[in-house]
């Protein structure tokens, strides 16, 4: 292990031993008579310099005026400050909107928070000027609004509700749309729901009229955007419904009342016979402030065609409308589960008020390493693949933490050494309050991952598997960041099928890959299979007789055996001539292809093509920063550590519910990895994003970008 690698190891381990990448916390302090900068600093166990840094209006040596509000950075253990941090954490919740408030004479923080039913912490979070300034008449405040409907306060008749079982690939919006209600109403009726919607979940939904003998009429509904100053009486006059019926159809208005911009469900007067058809159509939810021009331009469809599919548009475009669109429509958007997603730029969507808290669980094996002795530490780490992978992942994650910090995202990180022991993981988790975390990264081994996922699922905390992992136990809260081999195999076959014209397909598979042989023949029924001698080598005469000099020869080689791969690659290259074109594919580039003894020149001449979860990275901003910090180039583990952590933190800085963000954002691409998580019911989220790479002219290049 060279000196540069040692620098990375010792740097990372040194930081890990005292690791605490915490979000900066603040409290305010009202200066009392006789207090000085130094007495206050001593009280909160911070330096006078740190107080001056946060209070630019102060000058060192100036006398403090009584009642001056100071911002105190939390670096000490002062008891009141600790309580302030706890209250900040417990108060965090997601606003559904905002309103403005102009401060009147003699108003107090207490009075304002009581009026709007929020806490002082919440008020200050969205009005940071209150940390350093007292309330003043005329001050404009931003007031967060929260969903306050308590499900237990809703009085409903059980006979008016049905139970609906969630099917594979269904989403909140598709279920709400099918039953003619809003997503807000669906959540209110089913308070157990978090960001993950597991297959098989039993949901309470409105019973369709006509489902009983007493009521055999069909009820249909439409979305309605509440305008300014709208009342229940006015709605009743316009739509012929009572206030009680409106509240029954829209449980969220029971406590919040009608508010401008709210999208509610109302009876639709004209009958309509069609149902949601996700086989032939995709759907799009109209966003606020969208116009017919911007919408048709974004979706790549004429208004005439859009109107033909959605007659309701004749009444005008309204936020919340669900539009039906042709399945084959192409444009600058992504489609998930028949829902067209707007492309979200995470960098432009960061909420700096969010402070994600993440737990890393990796096998550093500190119990086997003497970090006080450099030479012993180097020897202990040599040959330890688990420790090497952990150091790579973690060093890349550290660069990601620095990167998001530069974007204004404050992250609270805790790191634990799993010691590659499930028992030790259990012991550590017994003292951890997992509900405090927004996400957990790791562990690496399947059994330890099962243990963590099971415990975290109780609190709906997502767990990100940073390495290839499989389990006999289903975990709905696990995000498998490395694409499964079968997904990448299917991706390669789809690519070859799309590029196929009139090639001559040959399949060479050893006994362990007969299933793959069958899959290839399903795609290419006329493919010719060649048998290996003693399951190890290929007869050159058989290959010579099988290749075509009229068509390009596309050869699939499926084996993890180095001897098989080496032999076949050499023979394939020998039969390649100006008349006989040969291109080599594999659906799984396993250890047989990764052996350094494989002739890379032969692979290059055969234009070796394969699927991969990872691609090589050239010199860029990340690699330069990594080199400067650790004195060595980042390996694939470090690149994955950066990409995975950066992706996770950007998503958590956008919205705290990782599953919800995943459904909204679609595919994200970084240095050498990309992520496109798809929910698979109780089996969690699988990353379906991978690369198709070609090794030719002695370099690897991506030949298809999704």
UniProtKB/TrEMBL annotation:
GO terms for molecular function: lytic endotransglycosylase activity. Residues 1-23 form the signal peptide. SMART domains: LysM. The keyword Translocase does not apply. InterPro entries: LysM, LysM_dom_sf, Peripla_BP_I. Residues 27-72, 99-143, 162-205, 222-266 form the LysM domain. Keywords: Signal. PANTHER family: LYSM DOMAIN-CONTAINING GPI-ANCHORED PROTEIN 2 (PTHR33734), MEMBRANE-BOUND LYTIC MUREIN TRANSGLYCOSYLASE D (PTHR33734:SF22). PROSITE patterns: LYSM (PS51782). This is Peptidoglycan-binding protein LysM. Gene3D superfamilies: 3.40.50.2300, LysM domain (3.10.350.10). It comes from the Bacteria.
